[in-house]
Amino acid sequence: MLSLKHQLIWGASEAFRTIVPEPQHRIPIKWSTAVYPVLCYAPFVFLAYLTRRPDTYTIRLLMLPSVITSILVAAYRFTWTIPELNVYNWGQCLFAAVAIAKSLEFALNKEGMLKVGESRPGVKKGKAKDTLNGTVNGYAIESAGHPYVATWFYDAMEVAHTLRGLQWKFGQGVHIPKHTRPLERSAFLKATLDSFIKNFLVLDFLESLLKLFPGVGEPLGGSMFYPELAPVARYTVSTIIHLLTGSALLSGFGMVYDLITLIAVGLMDGSPLSWPPVMENPWISESMHEFWAKRWHQLLRQTFLVFGGYPGKWLAGNVGMLFGAFIASGLFHECAMYSMGRGFDHFPTLFFAMQGPILIIERLWRRFTGKKVGGWPGRLWVYFDMFILAQPMINAWHRRGLGGGLVIPPILSPTRLIVLPLVKSILHLIQS
């Protein structure tokens, strides 16, 4: 007869596998099943609604377990089975992790989610009663809702989707890049559309090049460190693949952000002031502190604070907060990639965990020398971290199919429809 301990372990394992089944037991996503993972997010939206309503703390706490369970079911119980779409499993689990972090914040914040200048959800305090909710780069902004969307639903969707927390209490202190586009609506939309097209073309070109590399560009994946090459050639090729991957990720971030901006401002009547740039030219960073705190995107800052930063601070103060946030970042990326059915590879976790000690080294340098890390030595330091130390992380992703995933369909790809066939024809003529 099993002991109570073994029965509890068995029961916990069975419960976990009910929510997160083994890959072979998951439900394929197709037209007939696609609605179910979407419906699983209904409790999350309702929780977002409650966090903007006063006196809902108890019900939010009671809802939290079911909300997290439904998000995990949406992310891990349903799966994309076409090999080229396997990378979408990673994407939907990254999204789920963000939603879980938000759910924890929605439920555990007794006061609810407040905007700048509010004493209670929707209630401004003191002198702020007649002022707008916060400023961004010197411009006052306030969401005005949408004439064709119910106010309660707009409010819930706004708090559910805000990541950097512009005009929100939790977003105070987050670095926001200055506006680089005209703030007049029509000019802003035109500039955003131009940026979207540019990012689309660059991403298409870089993705098409990545798919030319054997293994790396295939759905099942492969190492970018080709063992048949001599060491110098091997690491030259891996560095090229690494640069192409990083550049593609930057273009992809920009393209998706531009598309969402066009929808938010063009269709949902949002303010251009609410959509500053997502990044601030990370290529010119002169320290890793500048890179992570200012020039890299801050979209997931709050997610990592909820999962690791706040618990780390409780355990070990500010240093614990720093280490906890970066460890959470590594686990965030890796636990989501588990959904691709290719197991765990903790090189990504290790890379992000290393960023804590690296930032401590920069602080010690400033303390003992009196100077910040900066200038061309600082930029070389950043490039060493991002182009050398990060290669095992990118390789771990490519071995599991990142480069072979479908991002831009071939039928919509100018590079694969025009550029590559043209280059092949020219090379064929030269050889002839």
UniProtKB/TrEMBL annotation:
Its main location: membrane. It is a multi-pass membrane protein. One of its GO terms (cellular component) is membrane. Residues 275-353 form the Wax synthase domain. The keyword Transmembrane helix applies. Keywords: Membrane, Transferase, Transmembrane, Transmembrane helix. It is found in: Membrane. The keyword Ion transport does not apply. One of its GO terms (biological process) is lipid metabolic process. The chain crosses the membrane at residues 31-50, 57-76, 243-268, 314-332. Pathway: Secondary metabolite biosynthesis. GO terms for molecular function: O-acyltransferase activity. InterPro entries: Wax_synthase, Wax_synthase_dom. Belongs to the wax synthase family. PANTHER family: LONG-CHAIN-ALCOHOL O-FATTY-ACYLTRANSFERASE 3-RELATED, OS04G0481900 PROTEIN. This is Wax synthase domain-containing protein.
